């Protein structure tokens, strides 16, 4: 279907628990006179004020959109990513952590804009579903149209990232999509480009009025992320007739409504504010042709599911099958996939990199730090950065803590001790949250202490170091948190303070570190083994034991598909291989295939694994 078709833990200690010694980074042992962040700027930068959407409204011609379909060809080829470098020696265990040299090695303290797009070479891609449109190797090949291509060039995007190469053709073909890709790999553009393109093709733009009738709705779990997506979408839609607007809580509704009245084609919103606007009859979803959920697993977890069901199923949005639905996230637990499938029709599952994996661009370090030592340990780390010059505007540090009170307390303690820090959490009013983020982004306050409110989606350039002062309970949250660094081909560093309380996370953490070719401390392995015996390993892996690649939960068991025009159940995958014309993806290193078809599904359902070269 294309848009045109349907408007219509335990406290037992492991024997190898490390003995805590006062931490002194090697480069600081003969140098204790550092003044933390002595070179901070003295005045607050001028902050740019977000302008409201100011595109001139244009009315439109009613036209029937030409089909967006680009050939739903099944393909099959394969290759498994050669992973494997994984060292662990006693010597390494005992070696103190030299953060400064690590940062140097990672080149995170430089002013240049160097990126390592080659890091996205050999990234495993897994696609399953029926009639999968082939990937594209360049933006030109995707044919997004002149105005969008001009904006892509303005953004200095030379080549599509792997997620973009696969997801954009799928979305352009009008297919529903559940897509997973590593943090910082360009998912925002992967859903924005097809949406903007489809509206342009439709050539039917919104009109001003008391009730807004957006054609596309993008939902975000946090206000900050909604604003970020809005800004990105505005860039992508620059000098087109496509109007973008944003609606989020904590800010005056009047101003947002005023903007909506000018007409809106793409509405970016947080669920609560959107429901409010719909109930005030200021927004109608009856014209929605595309629904996109960013951080989709978060959107559908316990907190948001009722609101999402209300918006999608109980308002006036066209039903599943009559609209296009796109779900994106870096993590996708299978129970959430199951939930998500309620909102999707005959969808394609796409994963670029292992679902929930972290990118190799992020150097991860886990240190055993008892709770009472955390503050001193943190101070030593920060002093180490300062001594190395890795601080300030171009090497921001993001510190995650568990609680809002903890965030305020740590912010205060850091500030009192001469480290410019600011906190962001859900108890702050929206203006304070925005101010904190701006102060951090500008480098004026190069340390941000945050709760998980800042863990998802936020794209802040120059975050060189993410410190998990308190580790989260869920490995997915850890993945999102560390993903605030190492974005868009740049390197980053992530340090986690692990204490006895974090035992339930140990197994999943070990797996994640191994997959990302990171060093695993012996003591952490020991915790992981004990965790398995004591607490069952926590929520280790969520993918039904699949060791590689993304995991489409539909592969597990016969599954009842709702809203499926072809059949009521999937049979189990039978391993039938589908073929793929390699000439179509000239930059693919394809070496193997896992491909399946469903017996009772009525048409081919392929599952494949490929190794994509890309984003170089
Ligand atoms: N094709 C491209 N070429 C160069 N840079 C790109 C490209 N696509 C996206 N980027 C940049 O990469 C950065 C990360 O993109 P984005 O925020 O969309 O990542 P994400 O996958 O949504 O991350 P997260 O999972 O944390 O939400 C952004 O600064 C974006 O401008």
From TrEMBL:
A GO molecular-function annotation: RNA helicase activity
Motif range (Q motif): 137-165
Domain Helicase C-terminal: 374-528
InterPro entries: DEAD/DEAH_box_helicase_dom, Ded1/Dbp1_DEADc, Helicase_ATP-bd, Helicase_C-like, P-loop_NTPase, RNA_helicase_DEAD_Q_motif
EC numbers on record: 3.6.4.13
UniProtKB keywords: ATP-binding, Helicase, Hydrolase, Nucleotide-binding, RNA-binding
Occurrences of domain Helicase ATP-binding (ranges): 168-350
Keyword set includes ATP-binding: yes
Compositional bias ranges of the Basic residues kind: 75-86
One family name in Pfam for this protein: DEAD
Gene3D superfamilies on file: P-loop containing nucleotide triphosphate hydrolases
DEAD-box RNA helicase Q domain location: 137-165
Region (Disordered): 1-26, 58-94
Annotated PROSITE patterns: HELICASE_ATP_BIND_1, HELICASE_CTER, Q_MOTIF
Family designation: Belongs to the DEAD box helicase family. DDX3/DED1 subfamily.
UniProt name for this protein: RNA helicase
Organism: Castanea mollissima (Chinese chestnut)
């Amino acid at each position: 279907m294309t848009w045109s078709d349907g408007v219509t833990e335990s406290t037992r200690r492991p024997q190898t628990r490390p003995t805590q010694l006062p931490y002194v980074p090697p480069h600081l042992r003969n140098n204790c006179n550092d003044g933390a962040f002595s070179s901070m700027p003295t005045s607050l930068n001028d902050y740019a004020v977000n302008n409201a959407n100011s595109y001139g409204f244009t009315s439109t011609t009613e036209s029937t959109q030409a089909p967006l379909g680009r050939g739903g060809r099944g393909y099959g080829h394969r290759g498994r990513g050669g992973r494997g470098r994984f060292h662990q020696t006693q010597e390494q265990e005992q070696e103190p952590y030299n953060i400064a040299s690590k940062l140097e090695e990672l080149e995170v303290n430089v002013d240049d804009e160097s990126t390592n797009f080659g890091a996205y070479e050999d990234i495993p891609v897994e696609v399953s579903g029926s009639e999968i449109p082939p990937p594209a190797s360049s933006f030109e090949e995707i044919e997004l149209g002149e105005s969008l291509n001009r904006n892509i060039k303005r953004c200095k995007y030379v080549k599509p990232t792997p997620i973009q190469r696969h997801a954009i053709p799928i979305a352009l073909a009008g297919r529903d999509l559940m897509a997973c890709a590593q943090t910082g790999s360009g998912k925002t553009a992967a859903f924005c480009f097809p949406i903007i393109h489809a509206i342009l093709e439709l050539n039917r733009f919104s009109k001003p009025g008391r009730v807004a009738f957006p054609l596309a709705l993008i939902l975000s779990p946090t206000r900050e992320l909604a604003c970020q997506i809005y800004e990105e979408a505005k860039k992508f839609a620059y000098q087109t007739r496509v109007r973008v607007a944003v609606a989020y809580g904590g800010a005056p509704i009047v101003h947002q409504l005023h903007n909506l009245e000018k007409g809106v084609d793409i509405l970016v919103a947080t669920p609560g504010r959107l429901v409010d606007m719909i109930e005030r009859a200021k927004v109608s979803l009856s014209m929605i042709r595309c629904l996109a959920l960013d951080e989709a697993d978060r959107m559908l977890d316990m907190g948001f599911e009722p609101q999402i069901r209300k918006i999608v199923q109980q308002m006036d949005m066209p039903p599943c099958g009559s609209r296009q639905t796109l779900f994106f996230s870096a993590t996708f637990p299978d129970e959430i996939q199951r939930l998500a499938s309620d909102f999707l029709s005959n969808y394609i599952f796409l994963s670029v990199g292992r679902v929930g994996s972290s990118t190799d661009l992020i150097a991860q370090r886990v240190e055993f730090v008892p709770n009472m030592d955390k503050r001193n340990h943190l101070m030593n780390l920060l002093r180490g950065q300062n001594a190395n010059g890795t601080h300030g505007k171009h090497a921001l540090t993001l510190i995650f803590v568990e609680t809002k009170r903890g965030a305020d307390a740590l912010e205060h303690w850091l500030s009192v001790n001469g480290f410019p820090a600011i906190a962001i959490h859900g108890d702050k009013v929206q203006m304070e949250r925005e101010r904190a983020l701006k102060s951090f982004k500008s480098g004026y306050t190069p340390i941000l202490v945050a709760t998980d409110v800042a863990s998802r989606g936020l794209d802040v350039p120059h975050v060189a170091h993410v410190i998990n002062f308190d580790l989260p309970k869920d490995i997915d949250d850890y993945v999102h948190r560390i993903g605030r660094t190492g974005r868009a081909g740049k390197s980053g560093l992530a340090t986690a303070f692990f204490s006895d309380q974090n035992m339930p996370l140990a197994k999943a953490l070990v797996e994640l570190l191994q997959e990302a070719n990171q060093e695993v401390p012996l003591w952490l392995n020991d915790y992981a083994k004990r965790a398995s015996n004591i607490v069952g390993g926590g929520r280790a892996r969520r993918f039904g034991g699949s060791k590689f690649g993304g995991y489409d939960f539909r592969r597990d068991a016969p599954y009842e598909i709702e809203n499926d025009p072809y059949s009521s159940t999937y049979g189990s995958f039978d391993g039938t291989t589908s073929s793929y014309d390699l000439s179509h993806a000239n930059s693919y290193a394809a070496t193997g295939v896992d491909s399946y078809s469903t017996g009772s599904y009525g048409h081919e359902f392929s599952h494949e694994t490929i190794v994509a070269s890309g984003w170089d």
